Amino acid sequence: KAGVTQTPRYLIKTRGQQVTLSCSPISGHRSVSWYQQTPGQGLQFLFEYFSETQRNKGNFPGRFSGRQFSNSRSEMNVSTLELGDSALYLCASSLETSGPYEQYFGPGTRLTVT
Amino acid sequence: SQQGEEDPQALSIQEGENATMNCSYKTSINNLQWYRQNSGRGLVHLILIRSNEREKHSGRLRVTLDTSKKSSSLLITASRAADTASYFCATARIQGAQKLVFGQGTRLTINP
Question: What pLDDT, on a 0 to 100 scale, did the predictor assign at position B1?
Answer without folding.
Answer: 44
